[in-house]
Each structure stands twice: as structure tokens, then as C-alpha cells.
Amino acid sequence: MKKYIIKRLLQLIPILIGITLLTFVLMNASSTDAVDVMEQNTGTSWTEEQKQAVRVELGLDKPLPMQYLVWLGKLLRGDMGESYISGQPVFSQFVSKLPATIYLTITSILLTVLLSIPLGILSAVRKNKFTDYLIRVLSFIGNSMPGFFVALLLMYVFSLKLGWFPVMGNNAGWKSVILPTLTLAIAMSAKYTRQVRATVLEELNKDYVVGARSRGVREKRILYGSVLKASMLTIVTLLALSIGSLLGGTAIVESIFMWDGVGKMAVDAILTRDYPIIQAYVIWMAIIYVVVNLVTDIIYHYLDPRIRMQNEQV
């Protein structure tokens, strides 16, 4: 197992380096001069001598390969540069937004699991009955509605009409996270309920289930002891993808609810062309997906003996 993890980690190094190179090249391929952006944000007019001095200070006067190597060296030391807008270190600014995104991720994932897994199992067990049809219709509706529409609908009903929760922001304690969590969980639960249903139905039709039933094993024991365990690979895959996207910040939801997280920070940086923040966000997204995929593969190793045997042979 240790050899497998070390091998996977070594494979991730060139991927991360390639992502940093691509990110840096794309940021510098823009026709907009970073110094001109900084000048516009100050609201003053700079002379060409002042602009050249800023370029020298930022290292923008050097060739692009040299800029990349300098930037990569600083990045490996934890120095992501300074924001063009606030002038603050990018790393500290990024870390300050991370807790809000992690908080929203945890609440959304927990609510999604509590909704999708029981509903998916119930829909599979009650196949082609009223309960199944009702759950499938609701999941279809939930999966069809765009996230921004769900957010605005929840905001209108529960904030403007009923006044139960704040309209936006994350300064009202646990009440602030309810509507963003519901917005994210509704879409994810609708999608995952259908996936869980399909997976459980597939397992229920396999020979080991038929054999267990013929031996008189109770249906609940078959369902929760064997079928659900065999379906965990699909569930883990879905959750891993969701965790990766949520930790990257859900830009639309965070922007609508003014949730001060990583996603909203990225949207603000794109609108103001704050390139150091954008670079940090892209690298964060890459690291998150790489780490989540690695953790998912390790979980697969323990859940599925076939994968474990294949890895041991390799």
C-alpha cells in the first residue's frame, strides 16, 4: 500500500508542475498589462518612468521563462505574491477566505448524504410504486433547476417573505449557512439520488442477492449488510467529486448570497483582473482535485478487494 501511495504521489508532481506552467502562461497571454490594471485601481495617472519602475519591482521586465521560474520558486516557499488590488499577500488573503468555504462544504455534503442515500435506497426498494415515482419526479425537478434560480427562490421565500433567514452574508451565525447549504444540497441530492437508486437496483438483481433471499436472509440484512456496502464505490466517487468542486468554491452561490469564501474571491478577482489571486485560485483547484482523487483511490483500495489485488500485482 505504501508503494502504491508513493507511486501516485510521484505521478502527481509533473501534473501539478504542468498546471502551474499552463496557468502562468495563460495569465501572461492576456493583452491587458498588469501595471495598467494597478494604475487604474489607484485612480491616478502614472508616468512611463513610474510604470517601468513598477515593472522592475514586480520582475515583469524579465523574460517570461525567467518570470515563471522566479514565480514557481516563490510558490514552493509559500509566497504567492501580492494582490494587485489590495496590495496584501495573496496567501494570507486566500487563507482568510478558506474557512467560510470549508464550512459551507461540510454542511452541504452532510445534508446531501442525509437526503440522497436514504431516498435513493427507498426509491430502489419501492421500484415502480408511488414512492419511487414521487422521488424520481422530485429529483428530476431538482436536477433541472439552475443553481442561481434555486438560490433566488429560497431567498425570496425564506428571507423576503417569511423573514426566517438573512438575505445574504455570513455574519448571522448558523442561520447564514442554511440557504446556501440548501441551494447546493438540492442540486446534488437530486443528482445523487438517481445514481444511488440505479446502483442499488443493479446490486439487487445480482446472483448473491437472489441466493441470500433463497436462504431466508432478511431483506434488511441483505440491503444494509451487502447491497449498500457494494454500492459504496459509486457513492464515494460522487462525494469525492462534490467535495472537490465545493472546496474550490461555488462561485455562483457564494456571489448571490455574498458568502465571503474562495469562490466569491475568485469572481471578484476575475472582474478586477487581479491575476495573482486568479493564479492562486487555479492552483488551489488543481491541488484539491489531485488530493481528492488520491484519497478516493486509497478508499477504493480498502473497499474493493479486486482493486486491492490489482494494485498489489502492479
Task: Please tell me about this protein's structure.
It is flat and about 85 Å long. The chain starts with a helix and ends with a helix. It has helices spanning 2-28, 34-42, 48-58, 64-76, 90-125, 130-144, 147-161, 174-204, 207-214, 219-230, 232-247, 251-256, 262-272, 275-303, 305-313. By secondary structure, the chain is mainly α. The protein has two domains: 2-76, no CATH class; 90-313, MetI-like fold, CATH 1.10.3720.
How do the SSEs run, as a string of H and E? HHHHHHHHHHHHHHH
**Main sheet: strands, sense, barrel:** none
Total beta-strand segments: 0
Q: Can you tell me the number of structural domains?
A: 2
Rg from alpha-carbon coordinates: 24 Å
Please name the fourth-level CATH homologous superfamily of the largest domain: MetI-like
The fold-level CATH name of the largest domain is MetI-like fold
List keywords for this structure.
79% helix, MetI-like fold, 2 domains, mainly alpha, 314 residues
Give a topology summary.
Elements lengths: L1 H27 L5 H9 L5 H11 L5 H13 L13 H36 L4 H15 L2 H15 L12 H31 L2 H8 L4 H12 L1 H16 L3 H6 L5 H11 L2 H29 L1 H9 L1
Short description:
By secondary structure, the protein is mainly alpha-helical. Helices cover 79% and strands 0% of the residues. The chain folds into two domains: 2-76, no CATH class; 90-313, MetI-like (MetI-like fold, Orthogonal Bundle).
